[in-house]
Every structure is written in C-alpha cells, then in structure tokens.
Amino acid sequence: MVEETAAPDSRTERSGRREQNKAENRTALLKAARAVFAEMGFGAASVRDIVRRTDLASGTFYNYFKDKDEIFEAVVGELTGVLLQRHNQGRARAATAEEFLHQHYSAYFNFLAEDPELLALARSSFTAVRTLLDKPDVRALAKALNDDIRTAIASGVLPNVDVSYLGASMAGVAFEISMVMVTRDPVDPEAATDFATRLMLGGLHRLPRR
C-alpha cells in the first residue's frame, strides 16, 4: 500500500500556521511582560507573573525567552525601535541647531509621557533600564543620533564639534532628565524639553530662572 503524503500546499499551510502561532505567542508574552513590569517593577516581577497574564502554558515561555532578564531586554528593544522611528521623523529634518535639539528631546520625553503603561514602567524599573544602555538595541539609538549629528554638521545645521562627545552629552541629558521627569506629578515633557534644549544650546546662563 502506498502511503499518502501531504500535498506541498498543505505542508506550506501548516508551516505558515506554526510560524503565525509562534509570532502570536511571542507578542502575547511581550505584551504581558510590559504590563507586569509596569505594575510591579522589574525586581518584583517573575516569569510566573508574566505567564499568568496570557493563555499560554507555563513552559511555553522558555521556548521564546531564557529568563526574565531576556524578556525585559526584548520589551525595551521594541520600545527603542518605536523611538528610532520618531527621531527619524523629527530630528533628522531639523533646519537649525535649536530645532535639532528640541526635536531630539521632545521625541524622547513625549514618548515616555504619553503612554501610561510606559510611564509606569519607567517609574518602576529605571534601574533595570540603566543596565541595558550598552545592549545592541539601545546602542542603535546612540548610533542613529551620531549619524544625524554628522549629517547636521555637514549641512551646516550644527557647528563642527566632536560628534561622539555631543552625542554622549545629548543622550545622557535625555536619559537623566527623563528619570526625574517621570517621578513628577504632573509629568511635563514640554518643560523637560525646554530645559534640556536651553542647557545644550547655551549652558547654564540660557536656563529659565525659577
């Protein structure tokens, strides 16, 4: 008796469904992790807490992530991807140095402030976020900033200064001010943007008096 084999189209369809299921499972885990980290903070959250927010079996988690640290890194990686897109739509199109700085800080601070879940995550897990600053996804933000600075220098938007120093300064100011901004009530991304922009443009003498 000749054993029947599945038609190529049938095998392709099953393979496609498997890949779709895998993608959906990973998305569900990331969504659950983001909510759990926002509510509990990175330190208090566990893999079990994350899986409980999904319809998946507990062992399924380890098909996608090694541990809590790895899924936290993936959550932050997704967020940096969105932030990169925002920078491409703002900073890279600036026509003046002030606009370049303003767009850079505005994109960053408003990105944090406009999403309640992301704001809660930043408030509860900023120490854990700090440990990821040297990871590839986050380093991509620094590379994009340095590339935009070089382009702005070449077109005369920015003065011809040390690219690495300026990029590091802008990134450091953005991160540290954001960590203070998220602790305030109400959160004021416009004030944070104005402060950071004035500081970078002219130093302390350009800062608004209080």
Q: Could you tell me the mean pLDDT?
A: 89
In the CATH scheme, what's the topology name? Tetracycline Repressor, domain 2
Largest sheet: none
Beta-strand portion reads under 5%
| Name of the CATH superfamily | Tetracycline Repressor, domain 2
Order of helices and strands: HHHHHHHH
Strand runs, count = 0
Q: Which stretches are low in confidence, meaning pLDDT under 50 for 5 or more residues running?
A: none
Architecture (CATH level 2) name: Orthogonal Bundle
Give the overall shape, derived from the CA principal axes: globular
What is Rg? 22 Å
Count the DSSP helices. Answer: 8
Query: Quick one: CATH class?
Result: Mainly Alpha
Helix proportion of residues, in percent?
Answer: 55-70%
Secondary structural class: mainly alpha
Give a topology summary.
Elements: H1 8-40, H2 47-52, H3 68-89, H4 97-113, H5 116-130, H6 136-154, H7 163-181, H8 189-202
Helix pairs in contact: 1-3, 1-5, 3-6, 4-7, 4-8, 6-7, 7-8
Give a short synopsis of this structure.
This protein has 210 residues and is an all-alpha fold. The protein has helices spanning 8-40, 47-52, 68-89, 97-113, 116-130, 136-154, 163-181, 189-202.
Would you give an account of this structure?
The protein has 210 residues and is mainly alpha-helical. It has one domain (9-206): Tetracycline Repressor, domain 2. The chain contains eight helices and no strands. The chain has helices spanning 8-40, 47-52, 68-89, 97-113, 116-130, 136-154, 163-181, 189-202. The longest helix is centred in the N-terminal third of the chain and has 33 residues, at 8-40. The model has no long low-confidence stretch (mean pLDDT 89).
